[in-house]
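tool_call predict_complex ligand=flavin-adenine dinucleotide
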Amino acid sequence: ESGAQIPALVIGTGYGGSVAALRLAQAGVEVHMVEMGMAWDAADSDGKIFANTTRPDRRSYWLRTRTKQPLSNFLGFPLDKAVPRYTGILDAEDFSGITVYQGRGVGGGSLVNGGMAVTPRRERLGAVLPTVSAEEMYGVYYPRANAGLGVNEIDPSWWDSTDCYQYARVGRRHAERSGFPFVLVPNVYDFAYMRQEEAGTVPKSALAAEILYGNNHGKKSLQKTYLARARATGKVSISPLHKVTSVAPAAGGGYTVVIEQLDTGGVRTATKTVTAGKVFFAAGSVGTSKLLTKLRATGALPGLNAETGKGWGDNGNVMCGRANHLWDPTGSLQSSMPTAGIDNWDAGGAFAEVAPLPTGIETFASFYLSITNNPHRAEFTWNASTGAVELSWQRSWKQPSIEAAKTIFDKINKKEGTIYRTDLFGLSKIWGDHLTYHPLGGAVLGKATDNYGRLHGHPGLYAIDGSLIPGNTTVNPFVTITALAERNIEQIIATDL
Ligand code: FAD
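tool_result ok
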């Protein structure tokens, strides 16, 4: 409530925020978390909390009147449709050169993501986090993060035989025939639950195409892991539908935090001002960068340095589909949880996730989300005349990502005698190069912050989310975001409390 004095305030309830809240609470600190999205803890009129990927409704999008599906077209038909404006779960946030997809709600991106829980290869960490000790990360913090997230591995013999991963086995066959290393990757979806789904003994989630707009069963989102443990300490409270708009030094020490309460139409219903001893920016790469860029430019936090808002990357995300021969069906039943990837990072700069296309019908299509070694880095800037934060990313900057992905798929197409799909992202368009699922950077570790996420110029302010990572993780990012948060909060608790 307005006027409250809070020892530690955490902005956002995604990976970074959840780690911070749990560890601070375990160290005896009272924590309050502020989350702009909804709680996602109550069933809607259809008896379900989350909407199905194939049937988007008001729950699906953050304050849009029309869906903006990552795959916008199918066989020439546009897929998007009108939905009521609502504080839904997936934000397709448009900047001039890129649409950045993000989760909104208690649990952040863990609510909407594919659950792929990938630890980067150790020899690649130097390029990902150049100022962080690999020994510490692989000895302590990656294992801690994987345990805290509930990461599990799929039984390879089941993967080899189940109908729901036929599409992934087609992906393997094509990758291996072209000589590419193919890897099974861990996930936070409970594979024991998935096998029960297949057996028909539990309500279906992954096998009912639930992914982009939330999973009603089976997925170990942060609500079920870090946040459940944080709440169980009795020291963590959460305000959903509350958005932080300002943080500034308070006269008597600590920070004045301004918070707007929203209704489910996105309209502000109240403005609250609290004082916090310490503030953890965990609003995600975009959310944290937007706040810090604005607060620096408007003079609210004048001590932030010139690195603020810089070093932002898209993790090199680019999508594409391939059209298979009739003798290579990918299956009408596809688990929505990806489990495999083609690793051509060292030779071609691409790691391609074999992604599901859970339409319920045979499509003869293989679909991929590639993570590539894209060198471009963008910057957030404050536009005083519009009162908005802008991002300098250019659409043409995806070209190196397309080239990297082509090192895999041109070769596979040649070997298999197949072609790219041209119907998934609009008319005659091969590449999904307009988006990212993996925003990273904007408050880069060791640049805008010290080597543990302490923001320069303002003691007691920290960045502790994907904004710390300089634009690329070589694989899907949330395990690295979680492990880095574990590393940083341990140091902060030991020295700053
Ligand atoms: P987030 O998880 O984004 O959390 C930030 C939170 O802060 C959000 O809940 C947001 O609503 C809130 N917030 C923002 N601004 C404010 C404010 N001003 N006030 C209050 N609250 C605020 N990664 C993987 O590793 N594997 C995958 O399989 C994978 N699949 C993905 C699929 C999709 C469709 C998407 C969108 C992402 C996927 N990701 C995946 C990426 C992963 O989800 C993100 O990297 C991760 O969630 C980022 O964690 P974070 O802690 O930085 O921030």
